[in-house]
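Please fill in the sequence for the structure shown.

STRUCTURE ENCODING:
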């Protein structure tokens, strides 16, 4: 669909305002229905038995005692989920992760499941399942897993992306490389070179609502699934494929979502619930415990990253190189590839190379977490940039401004940038009062930049005009951050009506065409494009109805401020017709009025941000307090500025937790030791300052309103900004995330001893 980029210059009436969120009252009063709030008549309780070992062969499973227990209606193992993937390795990995087949690959790997009349019976049944394991050596560290002596997870994995193809299997699933120029020649031109190694530990998205679903497989072959997810159409496709169901007969409804951040873009228990329901002949509900969420749903990658950057004395970067090793859990992913693509994207570089390695370890299957893989890469790169500025005596903002990517820059991962906001965010940061505020003893200030691609994808939307002139907008992108309000604003803007006249609903998979997952910051971007298209289609219908009601040519009817207006030279006496007036006459003028749109939303428009952070570090305890935090980010066009600010603040808050406290801790036995919020410490209100935000608007020319996605970029700079701040506060370069008090003290002591 061809939009005129000049459309971004229009004056908005609804877009850019701050109405109250439509789902707010239901959520604060408890009426909103989340994953665990849905029930079906006669439903059973599903529970999953999980491995206590990090790596083991399953020699035998005996479920007979559990199946014989009174009140148990179904027991399943991998035998009840036969391999129907037809050689699709990605789909097989999902299947194997949902129910282990011959081996378990991590502490918490599912191996059997039961459906019973109540929780007590289900738990008793799990205890009766007998499993015989042959325990194998395990590896949970990303660097250790790459060694030739490391325990091998799969005999069938040979490193991809290298020529010739390796002759022996490996824990390195794939190698990817990006860049251009002659890096070695570039380093020879440098006056100063900094090379450092960095590590980041595995973190979890920390969503408040655990995974939950209710499944019902009927005798006639139809099935229903109510699920907490970021993409119910994808859930339908994958579950149908894994269970051999007809896609058209599986209806998936998304619940309200109590946080996702990328962690609910995958399926975990849903195929298990469907298989249990199919076997029991009754609905089955599965709700993960918090411990299960940590042990058996997708965290981020742990990483080990080497970065080397060279500069001239005037601040010009001559070359940059990075090697990035990302853990994937037991199954191949593209996490290191994303890290390699994003690492140097903020800068215009003549000579650049980044190489990523996807590494298999005995940890849970890795999942996305807001701009997946980019925060770790940015932490390493922005730390080295900061150190280079120190070494050549240059202001760290000025160094970044000098080398920032701009329109026309060939990015480090290939494409040439259009209009982008990295330069403006840096200039805004330089001029922000935060940069001029004084610092005290044991305090430090850090700055870092961040980048995310943003995605578009397949999108379908319906817009229906009610008889009273109100509008119902049906979309298929799950609302994870306020998109219903934003899309209602877009529909109101396009139709020329009041926001209060529009209601946006999330349609299930049986009532709307296919929509891709709500990820990659695509929700508002893609669905707003489809909404605009659907609204324009509806306007065309209403213009036609008005022309018929007035008995004048269609070309003599215009649409202005929510009304059909006669514009011909002899039509001056015809009064405007409102949407309500046209809709009221629909029954006699041609029937219901609606607009429909299906499209592939291209041109999402990349996103950049610059963050500033002040910290204070107690030199005796190593405890860090964040004093002040500022986010500057380009939104393209802020449809609902309050939501945009919330996205900025939320990403910063999660980044603060990641930088200072959050990490998966595994014991020597390969078992997760902190599977709960008591020991896995996310930041609470007392850990956070008031987070200031500044929205910049550099319009995306590929969207009619100039919109760019905003949900992910805000988590990219915090690790680097906080690490730079802490490094300045303690006088030692911090290279290991999270910078917990013991880690800070150990780094300071090592520096003093050395």
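FILLED IN BY: designer on duty
SEQUENCE:
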């Amino acid at each position: 669909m061809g939009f005129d980029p000049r459309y971004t210059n229009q004056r908005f009436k609804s877009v850019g305002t701050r109405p109250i969120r439509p789902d707010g009252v239901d959520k604060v009063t408890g009426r909103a229905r989340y994953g665990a709030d849905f029930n079906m008549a006669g439903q059973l309780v599903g529970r999953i038995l999980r491995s206590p070992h990090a790596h083991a062969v399953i020699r035998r499973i005996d479920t007979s005692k559990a199946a014989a227990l009174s009140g148990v209606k179904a027991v399943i193992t991998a035998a009840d989920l036969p391999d129907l993937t037809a050689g699709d390795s990605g789909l097989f990995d999902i299947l194997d992760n949902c129910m282990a087949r011959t081996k378990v690959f991590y502490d918490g790997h599912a191996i059997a499941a039961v459906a019973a009349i109540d929780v007590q019976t289900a738990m008793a049944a799990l205890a009766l399942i007998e499993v015989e394991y042959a325990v194998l050596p395990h590896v949970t560290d990303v660097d250790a897993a790459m060694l030739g002596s490391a325990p091998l997870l799969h005999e069938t994995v040979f490193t991809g992306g290298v020529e010739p193809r390796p002759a022996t299997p490996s824990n390195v699933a794939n190698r990817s490389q990006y860049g251009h120029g002659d890096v070695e020649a570039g380093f020879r031109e440098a006056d100063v070179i900094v090379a450092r190694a960095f590590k980041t530990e595995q973190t979890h998205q920390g969503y408040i609502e655990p995974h939950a679903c209710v499944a019902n497989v009927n005798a006639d072959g139809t099935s229903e699934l109510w699920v907490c997810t970021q993409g119910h159409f994808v859930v339908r496709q994958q579950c149908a494929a894994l269970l051999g169901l007809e896609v058209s007969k599986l209806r998936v409804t998304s619940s309200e979502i109590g946080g996702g951040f990328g962690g609910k873009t995958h399926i975990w228990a849903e195929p298990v619930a469907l298989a249990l329901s199919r076997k029991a002949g009754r609905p089955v509900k599965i709700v993960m415990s918090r411990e299960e969420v940590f042990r058996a749903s997708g965290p981020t990658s742990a990483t080990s990253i080497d970065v080397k950057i060279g500069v001239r004395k005037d601040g010009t970067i001559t070359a940059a190189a990075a090697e990035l090793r990302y853990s994937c859990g037991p199954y191949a992913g593209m996490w290191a590839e994303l890290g390699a693509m994003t690492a140097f994207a903020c800068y215009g570089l003549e000579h650049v190379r980044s190489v990523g390695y996807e590494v298999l370890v005995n940890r849970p299957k890795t999942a996305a977490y807001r701009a997946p893989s980019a925060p770790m890469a940015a932490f390493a790169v922005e730390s080295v940039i900061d150190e280079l500025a120190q070494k050549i005596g240059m202001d760290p903002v000025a160094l970044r401004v000098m080398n920032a990517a701009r329109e026309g820059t060939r990015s480090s991962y290939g494409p040439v940038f259009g209009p982008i906001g990295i330069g403006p965010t840096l200039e805004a940061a330089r001029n922000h009062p935060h940069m001029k505020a004084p610092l005290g003893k044991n305090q430090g200030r850090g700055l870092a930049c961040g980048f995310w691609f943003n995605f578009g994808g397949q999108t379908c939307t319906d817009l229906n005009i009610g008889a009273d002139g109100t509008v119902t907008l049906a979309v298929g992108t799950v609302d994870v951050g306020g998109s219903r309000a934003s899309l209602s604003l877009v529909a109101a803007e396009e139709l020329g009506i009041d926001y209060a006249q529009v209601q946006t609903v999330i349609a299930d998979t049986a009532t709307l065409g296919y929509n891709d997952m709500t990820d990659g910051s695509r929700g508002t971007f893609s669905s707003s494009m489809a909404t605009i298209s659907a609204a324009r289609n509806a306007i065309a219908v209403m213009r036609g109805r008005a022309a018929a009601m007035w008995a004048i040519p269609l070309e003599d009817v215009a649409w202005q401020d929510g009304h059909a207006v006669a514009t011909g030279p002899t039509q001056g006496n015809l009064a405007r017709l409102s949407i309500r007036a046209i809709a009221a006459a629909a029954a006699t003028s041609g029937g219901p009025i609606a607009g429909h749109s299906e499209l592939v939303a291209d041109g999402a428009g990349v996103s950049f941000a610059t963050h500033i952070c002040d910290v204070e570090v107690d030199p005796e305890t190593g405890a860090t307090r964040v004093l002040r935090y500022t986010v500057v980010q380009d939104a393209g066009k802020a449809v609902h500025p309050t939501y945009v600010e919330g996205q900025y603040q939320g990403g910063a808050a999660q980044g603060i937790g990641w930088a200072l406290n959050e990490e998966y801790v595994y014991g020597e036995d390969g078992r997760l030791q902190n599977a709960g919020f008591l020991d896995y410490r996310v930041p609470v209100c007392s850990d956070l300052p008031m987070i200031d935000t500044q929205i910049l608007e550099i319009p995306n020319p590929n969207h009619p309103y100039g919109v760019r996605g905003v949900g992910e970029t805000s988590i990219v700079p915090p690790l680097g900004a906080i690490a730079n701040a802490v490094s300045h506060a303690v006088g030692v370069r911090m290279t290991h995330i999270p910078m917990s008090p013991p880690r800070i003290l150990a780094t300071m002591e090592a520096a003093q001893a050395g």
